[in-house]
Design brief:
The chain is an alpha+beta fold. The protein contains three helices and six strands; from the N terminus they run ββαββαββα. It has two domains: about 55 residues; about 50 residues, no CATH class. The protein has a four-stranded mixed beta sheet with strand order 2-1-4-3, with no helix packed on it. It has a two-stranded antiparallel sheet with strand order 5-6. The protein is globular and about 50 Å long.
């Protein structure tokens, strides 16, 4: 079963999809592409979590960090940069953005 968790102010709102099996990586990608306006994550157990938007102070802080890192990666030239909402699939199967990996 695929569960859809929608993060609210206090507790997640859970939507159950009993007829669906666990989403494959390709299906999860398609789901994210079809819902680009949402901040979507997937846990190692396959739960899909939709996060609320960042508040303005967090958005401003992330913007400034991204601008500084972008300038540094362009100047240094030895790597590439990603913004804090870029999702990476971990070895345990979870797909999380940088902000939840402790990298921003």
């Amino acid at each position: 079963m695929t569960r859809l968790l929608i993060q609210t102010q206090s507790t997640p709102l859970t939507v159950n999809f009993p007829s669906l099996v666990q989403m494959t990586n390709e299906q999860f990608y398609e789901f994210c592409q079809a819902n680009r306006e949402l901040r979507i994550e997937r846990t190692a157990s396959g739960e899909v979590v939709i996060m609320p938007p960042a508040f303005s102070d967090t958005g401003n802080r992330n913007f400034n960090i991204a601008a500084q890192l972008g300038h540094w990666t362009e100047k240094d030239g030895t790597g590439i940069g990603f913004d804090s909402s870029t999702g990476f699939t971990l070895s345990n199967g979870a797909t999380l953005p940088l902000m939840h990996l402790g990298l921003n």
